[in-house]
Amino acid sequence: MRWEFASDRPISTQIVETIQKGILSGVYPPGSNMPSVRALAVDAGVNPNTMQKALAELESQGLLRTQRTSGRTVTKDERLIMRLREQTSSGYVEQYFAHMRDLGIERDAAAALVAARVGGSPSGGAAGRHDAAVASATNVPMPAPMTAPSATTATTLSADISEVN
Predict the structure, then answer these.
(1) Among residues 118, 124, 137, 138, which is most buried (max CB within 10 A)?
(2) Are residues 15 and 72 in the same domain?
(3) Number of domains in the chain
(4) What is the pLDDT of residues 87-105, one digit of tens each?
C-alpha cells in the first residue's frame, strides 16, 4: 500500500481514507485478515497509536471487525463496500465538476468532455473530439490540426529557399 500524507489534514484521517481505498479497490478483499497495527504503522511510517485510532474509526464504520483470536478482518458485507464505493466515486465526480466549474466550464460541458474522452479509441482518436469538446465548453476556438507537408509542398519549399539564398 502506498502511504502519502499531506500536512494540511490529520494523519489518522488520511490513514482511514487510504485503507478505505484499499478495501474498495480489492487490495484488502472482503473477509481478509488485516496486517497488525504495528506492521501497518511501520509500513506507513506513523506512530502505532495513530494507526490504532484510524483502525478504530474503520471498525466504527463497519469496514473492519476485530476477532479475538485472529486480529482484524475486512467486513464480508459486500453491500456495505459497494455503498461506500458508490459514495466515494460520487464524491470524485463532484470534485471533478467543481474543478471544471473553477475553470469556467459548466456541468453539461464538463460531462461532454468526459463523454468525448470515453467515446474515443485507445489509440488516441479521442484527442480531436476532446479538443472540440474543450473548444465548445470554453467558447475558445481550437487551431486546425497540423498535417505533415506533402512531397510536392516540401519540394516547392526547398526550391523557394534555395532561390532566396
Answers:
(1) 137
(2) yes
(3) 2
(4) 999 999 999 999 999 999 9
